[in-house]
Q: What sequence folds into this?
């Protein structure tokens, strides 16, 4: 199946009361791991690259080619969107040109008027090419690619104004943060989430950033209140690192040809696939591609 934009399957998720997982990739193995997990779960999926990960992988064109070619060679049948995560304006435009099927323009650090003006331009250019657009108002707490957010709750009036320009899905802070949640984290603010949903209407899929480490009950409740896309990044990194550590600490890299990268990276890669399948199950999306 060719790459698809996110609009249709996220609309279906919004109506159906489930959420599509958006998993960040960092290299060839992670891309394979995410595609394998989604195919085994028969679930639609978003594979996303941060600007930093895309740079690490060799640029947006390389990311696009890897995802597109793996979909063919792995005979993937589930809908897959290639999404830019937290893109600057120029990066969003570049990804639209290259063939990404979905982009996030993150102007949340800009004055709101500038955020919305640039968002309008991204939406016009993206929609002309059939690409879906995610935008953000307020800021998400924690750190992503060196950008530290304050973790405020998204202002409702800004959510309404951003929704009105025709974006496909909205990222809005509801007490979630990027990275590892601190011990004293207060949890998601469901009253605020409900207020956003009431204000923007039931047609607009909302995005939960910082999906790693939120207890499953809170994730499910957020989905029931309008979250239709859940971003998972940190947790993939943690399970990959833990499985790799276990392999090396057991001395397996010193046995025979255990140092072969195809063997060395396999436990971590398999761990990412298992996490992807488990999160897809949490989000209620297993079998939704059928
Ligand atoms: Zn994020």
A:
């Amino acid at each position: 199946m060719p790459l698809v934009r996110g609009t249709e399957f996220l609309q279906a998720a919004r109506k159906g009361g489930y959420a599509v997982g958006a998993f960040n990739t960092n290299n060839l193995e992670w891309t394979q791991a995410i595609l394998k997990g989604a195919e085994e779960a028969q679930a639609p999926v978003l594979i996303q690259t941060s600007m930093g990960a895309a740079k690490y992988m060799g640029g947006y064109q390389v990311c696009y080619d890897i995802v597109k070619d793996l979909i063919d060679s792995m005979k993937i049948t589930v809908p897959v969107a290639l999404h830019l995560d937290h893109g600057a304006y120029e990066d969003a435009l570049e990804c639209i040109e290259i063939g990404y099927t979905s982009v996030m323009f993150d102007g949340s650090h800009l004055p709101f008027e500038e955020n919305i003006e640039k968002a309008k331009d991204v939406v016009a250019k993206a929609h002309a090419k059939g690409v879906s657009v995610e935008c953000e108002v307020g800021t998400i707490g924690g750190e992503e690619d060196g950008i530290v957010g304050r973790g405020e709750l998204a202002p409702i009036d800004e959510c309404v104004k951003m929704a009105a320009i025709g974006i496909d899905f909205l990222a809005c802070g509801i007490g979630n943060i990027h990275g590892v949640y601190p011990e004293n984290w207060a949890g998601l603010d469901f009253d605020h989430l409900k207020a956003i949903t009431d204000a923007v209407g039931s047609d607009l899929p909302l995005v939960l950033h910082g999906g790693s480490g939120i207890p499953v009950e809170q994730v499910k409740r957020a989905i029931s209140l309008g979250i239709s896309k859940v971003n998972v990044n940190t947790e993939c990194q943690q399970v990959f690192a833990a499985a790799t550590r276990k392999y090396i600490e057991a001395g397996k890299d010193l046995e025979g040809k255990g140092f072969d990268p195809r063997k060395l990276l396999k436990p971590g890669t398999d761990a990412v696939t298992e996490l992807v399948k488990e999160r897809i199950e949490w989000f209620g999306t297993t079998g939704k591609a059928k």
Remarks:
- The chain has one domain: 7-283.
